[in-house]
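Q: Two folds, back to back.
A: First:
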Amino acid sequence: MVNFAIHTDSRQCARKLVGYTTKEVMGHSLVEEFITKDYQASVQAVLDRALHGEETANFEFPLMTKAGARIEILLNATTRRNERGNVIGVVGIGQVSVCNHRSASSSRHYRHKISSPYNDFASQDITFRIAQEREYSKLIDHANAPIIGVNPLGEVNVWNQCATRLVGYNTNEVIGHRLVEEFITQDYQASVQAVLDKALDGVETANFEFPLMTKAGVRLEVLLNATTRRDEKGDIIGVVGIGQDITGRIAQEREYSKLIDSANAPIFGVDTKGNVTIWNQCAEKLVGYKTEEVKGQSLVQEFITPEHRARVQSVIDQALAGDETANFEFPLMTKGGIRLEVLLNATTRRDEQGSIIGVVGIGQDVSQQFHLLSTMTRVKLFRKTTFFTDMR
């Protein structure tokens, strides 16, 4: 039997929380009479440890009200000693919001202490918060996207069902394990760790792409937002991210890239700044520059003759605005200084969200036709001039 009493700045509000008056609880066993059976052993263990000088912070347990309702309580179990240093009980101090659970603006906070020669408790009614956390946890666990979280040590503490289906490991196999060291390929461990470290410093990263190894040893490509996770006081407690499996998309992009690179027509591409991003093998053979020589260079400034730069830039600008151009003819300078005539379709390039990210075009070398046409034009002009000369 443990004797205890409730003292508060508002006895009426305390009675609303638990329903018992001081007289009704004094002299009764806290654990046996007010704690649900499934938690009696764990609560008693916390009390026993505190009575031996081992304190517990933020211990959560359910308390039964007089009406039979279960309330979730969070408190610190602190050893209480007399003036000679002898252990005389356990005390915990906390805040409780009990007069109005529905409105945060109208809630009044009171300090409660349960006192006795053995136990003093000040509790925090966290029933609403616990219910909310459970709802959030349920939403996360049933989300149709993989959600992964780590603590400040980089150990997994969030791993929902979609992550389990995607990677093959169940929650018990990953919780407490190091995400980077155990599930990320070695070539990406440093970059992934850097993203986590930044998020732990409050700098979040959107659309971060990294490979994740499945239980079967298959490498998945995952796109993730690394978001800082904070507690109710605003302190950083980890990182959580909602991911997207882009393995199929990456494979498709690689296939497209392979088709583009091996096409028997020159294919050029630029980003929104006009810098070269695509330059296939046929373009290399035609112009003489290797891909590494042109990537990141300005197509117009570096490879177009000065008298045609404004016209070519105008076509690129139009395509970047969504206005595409078909059969556009322009001159391209080779590495050997030879001027080529190229016929190109300037097509707007977009990402998966539909945002414009550049221009791509499939070309055709029409230099021979151009020169042949020019020669024929000159011959016709020569014949015409000769005819009129002979007429004189």
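A: Second:
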Amino acid sequence: MWLRQVKYFLLKFLRLKDSPRAAALGFALGAITNFLPVLGFGVILAVLLAGLFRANILASIIGHYVFAVLFPVCMYLNVRLGQLILREDIQDLSDALRSLARLDFHSLAPLTKTFIIGAGINIILVGVILFIVILRILKSHRKGLIAWLASKKPLKIKPLRKKKNKKIK
């Protein structure tokens, strides 16, 4: 059942009438909202970012929902990358969650700084990488992917660049 939904969203994304740049930017902006703990407001943030950067709004919503399943992983990566950058050994993550449950915000101060730095770097890295990858896919393989998803035939991808054979005289 979920595979059918993924196929539906992929087809909807690939059939967007907007430029490949606007669609790729929208998808990337929607995906990076999952690196922020906005809990329920991610779609609104994705739409606002897409409007601000003149990206495709539907692509940003699709990007947000595709990456929503990775939300816990994104939060973990934010903390770990922040630890790596700051070279800090903060309290165990489970202790931090207990402090949060007790509303003891003073013990969360080191985790907050680490999280914000990790999130900022992750947002930039993942956003740029996703934009480049999605843009390249849309520019070169959009029609082929639409045809493949609409049918049940195996996927045939043509090479990105054709090699020119030089004749030796």
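Q: And?
A: The helical segments are 2-14, 20-32, 42-52, 57-67, 71-86, 93-101, 109-150.
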